[in-house]
Amino acid sequence: MTYPTTTSRRPSLRKLMQRTGLAAGLLALAGTAAAELAGSNWPEYHGDWRGWRYSPLEQINKSNIAKLKVAWIHQPGEITQGLQATPIVLDGVLYYAASANKTFAVEAATGRTLWSYAPEMDAVYQKSLFGFYTRGISVGRGKVYLGTSDGQLIALDQKTGKEVWKTRIVDPKACHGCNFTSAPILAGKALIAGPTGGDLAQRGKLHAVDAETGKPLWALDTIKDDPKSWPGKSGNSGGGGAWLSGQYDAKNDTYFIGTSNPAPDYNPQARAGDNLYTSTLLALDPATGRIKWHHQEIPNDGWDFDAAYEFVMLEKDGKELLMHLNKGGFVTVLDRKTGQVQDVWKFAEHVDWVQTVDRKTGALVGRRAPQPGKSDVFCPSALGARSWNAGAYSPQTKLWYSNGHELCAKVTIAAQPVESLAFSQPYFDVSAIDFVGPGGKPASARFAAYDPITGQRAWSLPSEVPGLAHVLATGGGLVFNGDPRGILRAHDAGTGKELWQFNVGSGMRGGIVSYSAGGKQYLVVATGFGSLFPGFSSGAWPEFKDVRGGAALVAFTVE
Fold first, then answer.
1. Which of 28, 109, 209, 530 could form a disulfide with 518 if both were Cys (CB 3.0 to 4.6 A apart)?
2. Which residues constitute the signal peptide according to the record (predicted)?
3. pLDDT tens digits, 262-287
4. Looking at the predicted structure, is the pLDDT value of residue 141 above 90?
């Protein structure tokens, strides 16, 4: 089997806090720009800890979107796997990471390079399934933090780009190629990062280091040491991990993270327990790694349905809630203080691996698991009802905007002895796997707006190919989305009507952000197509075999 590769300008919250004398205490608590909400700046991976990917800036709006023009372009000089990162913007400086962890600081108004950094890495990363993936960095405490493709955590001086410290956390040679692909997150004094590994024959973990020194603080084993959960030695090759960035709620001093699927991906009988803490939502004490609560979305996951996607933090009727999309096609709404399920709604149109999910408990009802020696089709596929590219929430419309697709997996289960696996080969336990449309029909895709609590759709637009960039909503009444063909679009947030489009020259897989610099609002888009998705799904969308490579940040503004 082969595996594909392939207008108002408003002062920042930080400045307002400085004026009122609150900055020192709150920033000390947060240990990061996390105390600041997205506004003039874009301080965190999702804009801020709420996971909204929303900018309140309104200088670019529905009345002048037609005047949006390219302001500057920055090219990192490395196009392997494109740009998958989301830039961070603080006080007129934009920070981002490209393939192989090449990291840059540029002037946010001009794109002029201020400094650049390329880490020294073990060449083993080039052989890893996820070796060139870099989804982002974090900035805070005067440092820029990155997790590398060869298993290191590194802190750079924010002003100069010089190394402050580096700590090796995992060794890809010892864990079948696990590494860091996403931005580590600051949570108080801790810097927390999870390595890849759901599809690898290894024992997943989540790691925390001291943000000032890089000294390890704690490691949480996502493979629970419990024979009822992991019989025999199944946990030693049980996968797990937490490969996307988590989110830190400073008010409640809680770090939220979703974990990846167990391995072997499609043979749950080989690990006949609930397989905690894989495919699970975790709320942690960031200082100790203690689990405050957990909710396992998919016990004994047999379909590769990670729980790794973003959390959207909301408040309703006096309750602090979070909503979370699982790859299996359902959204769960929980009380974020207790983890108690509030509701579950169906995101995917075609779901046949389970009859339903109990709306009060989140329990799976009528599950249909893969059977050894048999070939069967399951919808959605391991590529999810949406990929890892996040949606966006607007407090103006109270709608959540997300890409989605209808794609199924046809699998034939057959044991793969762990000792027979090549380096970084996925531990699927299959003899064949293919990705097909549901019910013999073509695969489909859409971009839609939802009530995040009830799931009611406000509007939906068909897409010829799945949107695989992160979505951005803005205070100008706009929603921005990018597709694999390289078309960046602006939609009316209320109706979905397309108001503007621009061809950036290569497909989009990374972030779209907005910020203010020099009195102007800018929109910046990460371009360059990559990741495993196009390779695996090229049977359903053949044009993915010929996607244009590239890597560039493209900035727009209204003159």
1. 109
2. 1-35
3. 999 999 999 999 999 999 999 999 99
4. yes
Cα–Cα distance measured from residue 405 to residue 194, given in angstroms and rounded to the nearest whole number: 27
Q: For 75, how many CA atoms within 13 A lie in the half-sphere containing its CB?
A: 10
User: In 3-state terms, what secondary structure has residue 271?
Assistant: helix
What element of type H or E holds 404?
strand 399-406
What is the DSSP annotation of 469-530? SPPEEETTSEEEEE-TTSEEEEEETTT--EEEEEE-SS---S-EEEEEETTEEEEEEEE---
Tell me, what DSSP letter sits at residue 28? H
Taking the alpha carbons at both ends of the chain, their separation in whole angstroms is 52
- Please name which of 101, 98, 191 lies closest in space to residue 139, comparing C-alpha atoms: 191
DSSP, residue by residue, 185-235: EEETTEEEE----TTSSSB-EEEEEETTT--EEEEEESS-S-TTTS-TTGG
Four-point Cα dihedral 537, 542, 547, 553, nearest 10: -50
Buried-state track 494-509, b at ≥16 Cβ within 10 A, e below 16: bebeebbebebebbbb
For 336-391, the pLDDT digits (tens) are 999 999 999 999 999 999 999 999 999 999 999 999 889 999 999 999 999 999 99
| 526-536: pLDDT as tens digits | 999 988 898 89
Contact 176, 421 (CB under 8 A): yes
304 catalytic residue (yes or no): yes
Q: Which two tokens stand for residue 128?
A: 């890893």
8 Å CB contact between 428 and 420? no
Amino acid identity at 558: V
Q: What is the chain's alpha carbon radius of gyration, rounded to the nearest angstrom?
A: 22
CB neighbour class for 199 (10 Å; exposed up to 12, middle 13-18, buried from 19):
buried
Q: For residue 369, count CB atoms less than 10 angstroms from its CB and return exposed for 0-12, middle for 13-18, buried for 19 or more.
A: middle
Closest CA to 222 of 167, 179, 261: 261
Q: Which residue in 150, 199, 265, 304 is the catalytic one?
A: 304
What lies within 8 Å, CB to CB, of 317 at 6+ separation is none
